[in-house]
Amino acid sequence: QVQLVESGGRLVQAGGSLTLSCAASGLTFTRYTVAWFRQAPGKEREFVAAISRRMGSTFYADSVKGRFTVSRDNTKNTLTLKMNSLKPEDPAVYCCAASATGIMSQVRAHSAYAYWGQGTQVTVSS
């Protein structure tokens, strides 16, 4: 079955950097758009970043643009999120997700994603 397993979440100081990883299995990775979403306590799930199947296009939420970088390694079936200049509003559970959609206008919608990981906790201390 499809599995998405995140890792890398931890406590980091504001202004610091962190890299999250997502290992995918049970699917043909190159056929999926993959993304990061986050959810903080009491808030709705929020789109963070996505990358298209062949790495041709990346998409970011305005709140992370210029600070976060999404990438994928199709030879290792992994998705990565490099986070710089972390802010007090960034703490959340970060989840990776996979979507078969080829429609790039849909990448920010969590409803487009069929597969989800359990998430990894990111905490930022001020």
Written description of the protein model:
The chain is mainly β and 126 residues long. It is built from no helices and eleven strands. The protein has strands spanning 3-7, 11-13, 18-25, 33-39, 46-51, 58-60, 68-73, 78-83, 92-99, 115-116, 120-125. The strands form two sheets. Strands 2, 4, 5, 6, 9, 10 and 11 form a seven-stranded mixed sheet that branches. Strands 1-3-8-7 form a four-stranded antiparallel sheet, with no helix packed on it. The radius of gyration is 13 Å and the shape is globular. The mean pLDDT is 95.
Question: Which consecutive residue ranges, at least 5 long each, have pLDDT under 50?
Answer: none
Number of strands: 11
Largest sheet geometry: 7 strands, mixed
Shape: globular
- Approximately how much helix is present in the residues? under 10%
The structural class is mainly beta
Percent range for β-strand residues: over 45%
Q: If you compute it from the alpha carbons, what radius of gyration comes out, rounded to the nearest whole angstrom?
A: 13 Å
Note the gap between the termini.
Answer: 40 Å
Helix/strand order: EEEEEEEEEEE
Mean pLDDT comes to 95
Number of helices: 0
